[in-house]
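Before a computer can learn anything about folding, someone has to put a protein's shape into writing. The outcome of that step, for a single protein, is printed below:
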Amino acid sequence: MAKQSKFSPWRYLVLGPLLAVVLTSCAGNQEPRTEVPIPDAGEPELARLIEAALQDDYAYDKLAELCEAVGSRLVGSAGMDRAMAWSAESFRTAGFDSVWREPVEAPYWTRGREWARCIGPVAFDLAISGLGQSDGTGPDGIEAEILAVRDMDELEARAAEADGRIVLFNPSWEGYGKAARHRVGGASAAARHGAVACLVRSATGHSLGAPHTGMMRYAEDAPRIPAAALTVEDADRLFRMCKRGLQPRVHLFMEAENHGMTTSYNVIGEIRGSRWPEQIILAGGHLDSWDVGTGAQDDGAGVVLTLAAARQLLQQGGRPSRTIRIVHFTSEELGGHGGRAYLETHRDELDRHVLALESDSGSYTPLGFSVDADSTTVARLAELARPLAWLSPGDWQVRRGGSGVDIGPIVREGVPGVGHRVEHSRYFDVHHSRADTFEKIDPEILARNVAVIAGLIHIVAEQPPGAPATGVAERFTNDSHPDGGH
């Protein structure tokens, strides 16, 4: 159960006037943006903020920098060092009041060279991507017959056949959760029954020949065997061969190596509030990425969206009433170490965090927010965010749900958490693969997401603390909060 927070910040937010926003989309990435008059409906500052965000190319240009001048950003790599420097400089040039780094102890893993080949009864190359934190095969590689199973249950039923073989998990696509379960725990499950290596079908529903990597974990009660992802096409082919009794044999070679822990950093930029600076609105995404692709959707987009949103607040409103803290987290991909480190560093000031927002679903059509808080908080936030609904041509919702891996630790301690929701039907097509690259970013949709995030932060930042409608006293003069926490 989550720890009870000392207060419930949303009891001090009152409902403001609603803004009717009429937004029309531009067709095609190359067309100039249409000037869309946005009626202010009593909220001229919010209207100006949204209009400016929709017309601004800043986020698109910054994401191009991150993906193409910085590149992939695996923790411990030169790319991640460049990214942390890029992040700090971006905060400074955007006009943030304070910029700093906080150390995070995180795993250091390298991929090295890798390849795999089916050597019989028909010879063909396999496209693989070693799983993060997997050990390597040794210099000679591993050669063994494939045991192909759909899932963990089938492995257990056929456990006697696993000894000395390479186990292939080939689950049908039923969403990311089931696929990730086999990726994370499949190697240890197979090793308990004597398998010498593990292959898993990539976690995607649509494939064009790109393997999708991701983190795995070794259990303490099983030998450590190498693990890699196969493309959907190769996994299906080997699976069908096994079903026909062809007994495919594979040679696997991986130079992957775990180097222990290293020091990485969360990079933080802060805009000090003009009226209630002691109250913090946190927003962010994770700066690290896998070493395949350039991490455009995961999570370069989230990093840039939250940076650009805060910059718009400075440019259009001068200075928000509450403090805005943007965090570019490290080591989300290798286990969420940045989020846990933030909690430990800032545990004593959690009662000053009004809200935490995370963007880690890519930049697709905005659909609203998911809120990890009590039902009253969800309802109030849905009402406050209603003026932003017209920014979405899709099914806009503000509903109860998860918020994000990086803010998860402080949300579990009672800080209301918000996840940035987008239409994600194509997200897992590129997720964790070499296909996650910048040219797939739509500048119009990216700008729309900046507007949505900037709008929400503005609305929350400007709500007056304490109001007759809430029936409670000023925030920092009352320690009794019967509806606090979740």
User: Anything to note?
Assistant: Residues 112 and 437 are 21 Å apart (CA to CA). The first strand starts at residue 98 and ends at 110. The longest helix spans residues 296-317. Residues 1-41, 467-486 have pLDDT under 50 and may be disordered.
